[in-house]
Amino acid sequence: MTQHHKVFQVDHHEDIAVITLQPANSGYRYADVHKESNVVLHLFDQPAHNHVVVDLSQVDIMSSSMIGVFVRLFRKISNAGGCAAFCSASENMTRIVQDMNLTQIWSIFPTREAAIEAIQNKITN
C-alpha cells in the first residue's frame, strides 16, 4: 500500500517501509511537515514496522527541520532494534548527509534496491 502526501510518500517492501521525500519547488509548509512527520513516526509504533529506507532521489537539498524529522525517525527505529538507511541521494544530498555525520550512524546506498537488500541481509543474519 502506498500513501501519498505533500511531503512524504510511504511504500512498503515486505517489512521495510520506504519513505520518499517529495520534491518541493518552493519549500514545504511547516504545518505539512509537522503533520506528515507525526503520521510517519506513528507508523513505527506498530511492531510490524521496524525497518526504514529513506529515498532521497527526488530532492537536492533538505531543511534542518526535515533532517530533524529523519534523525527522530532513525533513532526511534534504532532504539526498537530496527534498521534504517538512506538511498538514492544526489551528490549534494550525499554531501549534506555526510557533513552532518549521519552516515556514521546510518548507511547511505546508491539505490533503493541496494538499501533494501542490505537491510534484509541484516535482518536475516
How would you explain this protein's 3D organization?
By secondary structure, this protein is α/β, with parallel strands linked by helices. It has a single domain (3-124), classed as 2-Layer Sandwich (Transcription Regulator spoIIAA). The chain has helices at residues 30-43, 64-79, 91-99, 112-124, and strands at 3-4, 8-13, 16-21, 51-55, 84-87, 107-109. It has a six-stranded mixed beta sheet, sandwiched between helices. The chain is globular and about 40 Å long.
What are the defining features of this structure?
42% helix; 4 helices; Transcription Regulator spoIIAA; 21% strand; six-stranded mixed beta sheet; alpha/beta; 125 residues
> Mind telling me the CATH superfamily name?
STAS domain
The tally of strands reads 6
Dominant shape: globular
The percentage of residues in β strands lies in 15-25%
Side-by-side strand order of the widest sheet: 1-2-3-4-5-6
Offer a concise description of the structure.
The chain has 125 residues and is an alpha/beta fold. It contains four helices and six strands; from the N terminus they run E-E-E-H-E-H-E-H-E-H.
Secondary structure elements and their pairing?
Layout: E1 3-4, E2 8-13, E3 16-21, H1 30-43, E4 51-55, H2 64-79, E5 84-87, H3 91-99, E6 107-109, H4 112-124
Parallel strand pairs: 3-4, 4-5, 5-6
Antiparallel strand pairs: 1-2, 2-3
Helix pairs in contact: 1-2
